[in-house]
């Protein structure tokens, strides 16, 4: 959904001289660009899935295990994506200008946003949202993940989101993230439904989250319409977001248990490196090949090329580097535990 949005519904810039297609996307794709203008809602679905998966994978784990799993999952592919994207936009600064060396190095920490430094690729903004979600959920992991504590977490985060929105406190808003919290909260509640069965309380959490999501999607849609320079009705975006909720509800209730196969593991492994690589590199590739292939063929070529690159990143970088990183972090945490109570020598 996100790749489709960036290639067919966006193109990189409203200025044709800086756009990947060298003209507005609604001219290149008169019909499809309308739908693609709304498939950014794939990010909202991603946040719901993240809430579901993080709650699932944290059950029975220590805080150290939680920290290690998140670092191992996020950083190896990200490091390569930062370097590869920088190399591509440096060699061909056609759609996007490269960042300076200091900013690229800071990007390797994944903490460029709090330092108000631009991202090597615009899609990285979601990673800082994810990190803040991990930080909040780490409080539950620290105390031990239980049904009661997770429900309390969902309730308190929902209340905090409402209060922060009403009070308009910038610092608390940054931590609580009321514009994104409903998706994570809904995903967490859906996992509880999946694990323990539905209750009126859990359905209430999901329903309230969905109602809040309607407002957030409408607000984002209006802002996107301004940046794209065209009118966008919020109803299709709300409908796609709602469809994402429904798919996850069906999954939580076991309605998708029949979908099986090894291909699912591969597809799941490719989504993250695909997301990291596709936007700025893809736009650059489109601009380079714009006058050599027709638009739909070019979209297909770039999408398949990005999938192939994602597979290579997974096999050649994520797998070997993740193992090394996990062993190193596990050893470091074990040393911390062993020596935490050893008195310092005078």
Automatic annotation (TrEMBL):
The chain crosses the membrane at residues 35-56, 77-95, 122-142, 149-166, 200-218, 238-256, 295-317. The keyword Transmembrane applies. Residues 1-314 form the Acyltransferase domain. Keywords: Membrane, Transmembrane, Transmembrane helix. It holds the Pfam family Acyl_transf_3. Signal peptide: none annotated. The keyword Nuclease does not apply. PANTHER family: ACETYLTRANSFERASE, ACYL_TRANSF_3 DOMAIN-CONTAINING PROTEIN. This is Acyltransferase 3 domain-containing protein. The lineage of its organism: Bacteria, Bacillati, Actinomycetota, Actinomycetes, Kitasatosporales.
